[in-house]
Amino acid sequence: MDALAQGRVKPAGIDLNYITIEHPRDIFDRMIRGMEFDASEMSVSEYICRWADGERDLIGIPILPARAFRHNCIAVNTDIIQKPSDLNGKRIGVQLYTMTAAVWIRGALQTAGVDLSSITWVEGDIKKPGAHGKPKAKPLLRPVRIVPYMDAARSLSDLLADGDIAATIGADTPPCLGKAPNVQRLFPNIRETEKRYYQDTGIFPIMHLVVIKKDLVDKHPFVPSSLFHAMNESKDIALRGMRFLATYRYMLPFLPADLEEIDQLFGGDPWPYGIEPNRKSLEALVTYLYDQAMVDRKIPLQELFGPVHGPNLKI
Predict the structure, then answer these.
(1) Percentage above 70 pLDDT, the chain
(2) Which range, of 124-133, 153-162, 235-244, averages the lowest pLDDT?
(3) What is the pLDDT of residues 206-229, one digit of tens each?
């Protein structure tokens, strides 16, 4: 979003004040609790769960600024866990049960033979003692064993190294990974594992979308389309910049080889916006949310996103 943030791309009809906030959880909490922004980045799972619960104060647009394969974020205590099925019946640390990264990881673990109903989920911050953010979580629709971790002295990373939990999942790896000899990734050859996952499923997991206040959209119906096209243009500028190889614009030593692999896997654009190019990933996420007791039905994608029209906007 650099081109948008720097004003090189301007959304039609909008005097944009682009605010950069370092941690996504802070954005989500400030938007949901205080409605501090007219539009913001948002957890996809949190947005879908709110929508399913009848909260329609935010309208999503299919701008998907954050996505990531998350097999790399499954860390295990190797004194306890050697393979995915060893996780059955164990205690697993997670920043938030409802966070999008955890939803995707549980889906992958279930595919790998883990019985999710047998797990006790220990919620807490992975890097420091205490909770991860202040989400407005709704009760789950079926019983799930979730234990809030309230220790004032140890993080989930500490619990993992000490063997008090068998694994951690979430949007971060624990600091003990690479330091404690008994903590490793569940899938050691992570690049090949995640690449094979994409080749097998066609899914590049989506983490965040962009939401807009409904009352703003009601007053100015052009806003979703204007933001969509500006953000899409900003993304395209970033993609072109990534391919400028006379001098690298990203600190990636093997960037040319990485770009060749990206082109081979994704056909040139690994980060498409819009519903149709992302239908498989979005529908998989909705299915996981339903399977994991977070929504009561598999919501059609067309319900979840506001209308986005062509670039010739009526303002």
Answers:
(1) 97
(2) 124-133
(3) 999 999 999 999 999 999 999 999
Q: CA 71, 82, 96, 287: dihedral to nearest 10 degrees?
A: 60
Residue 60 and residue 305: Cα distance in Å, rounded? 5
Residue 233 Cα to chain centre, angstroms: 22
Contacts of residue 208, Cβ cutoff 8 Å, sequence gap at least 6: 24, 41, 42, 43, 44, 64, 65, 66, 67, 100
In whole angstroms, give the CA distance from residue 275 to residue 300.
11
Residue pair 131/38 in contact (Cβ under 8 Å)? The answer is: no
- Report how far residue 9's alpha carbon sits from residue 3's, in angstroms, rounded to the nearest whole number: 6
Q: Which two tokens stand for residue 32?
A: 């949901």
Token couple for 183? 């903590």
- In this prediction, residue 257 has a pLDDT band, given cuts at 50, 70 and 90, of very high
Give, in order, the Cα–Cα distances in Å from 82 to each of 90, 91, 121, 172, 185.
13, 15, 19, 21, 10
Sorted by where each starts, the structural domains of the chain and their CATH numbers stand as: 2-67+205-238+273-303 (3.40.190), 71-201 (3.40.190.10)
Number of other CB atoms surrounding residue 147 within 10 Å = 13
Residue 312 in this model has a pLDDT that exceeds 60:
no
Q: What is residue 303's DSSP assignment? A: H
Spatial CB neighbours of 201, under 8 Å, sequence gap ≥ 6: 280, 284
DSSP string, 142-185: S---EEE---SS--HHHHHHHTSSSEEESSS--TTTTTSTTEEE
pTM for this structure?
A: 0.93
Strand order in the sheet with 91-94: 146-148, 120-123, 91-94, 167-169, 75-77, 183-185
